[in-house]
Amino acid sequence: MTAELRDAVTRLGRSLAVLQVRVADEGDPDLGISLAGVHEITPGWIDTYRELTIEQWGTAPPGMPSAFVLQYLIDPLATVISAAATGTPFALSADPALWSIGLEPTYLYPVTAQVRVGDHRRVDDDIERLDIAYEGYRATASEVATALPSPTRMSSRQRLGMVEDMWEIALARLVGAPPPERLSCCLIYSLPGCQPCAGCPRRP
Question: What's the pTM value of the predicted model, to 2 decimals?
């Protein structure tokens, strides 16, 4: 990773309120969740998130733990890659082997994204850079979403809709815009006392 790219990613990490970003040095271990081995890890994560939800809410509606874990897997990728494409001259590679995610230890949501040296590209044209970044993100996120080993049925609309939603939400967050209308549903409305979130496809 060139010094310029490393500096850009480091600055990016200081500008994202929702997520810390760090560059892995050679020999640094992956964080808690490696995107390269995600499908071996996610069944246990979904089970633990289900148990945590029951502790907090008294119930874990079918499909909700899987929906949240899928969001947590691909949102950091969307957040960091879109921010880099719009705020730096670099389109970051979405190769799963380069990415890992650190989770908050109690509630298991992502707090840190780590990226390694790889085929990251400097692209001077803003539109071309964002297109390249999106295509790379979409390929990796779609692979993660399609192969997610959910214990409950998840439709292709839910899985691939989540891929599009996380990208659009990340872009909206960068410019302070309201959450866009979603294709997928996180199912939070199914918890006691909760309402559909902003952008929920279940809103009238």
Answer: 0.93
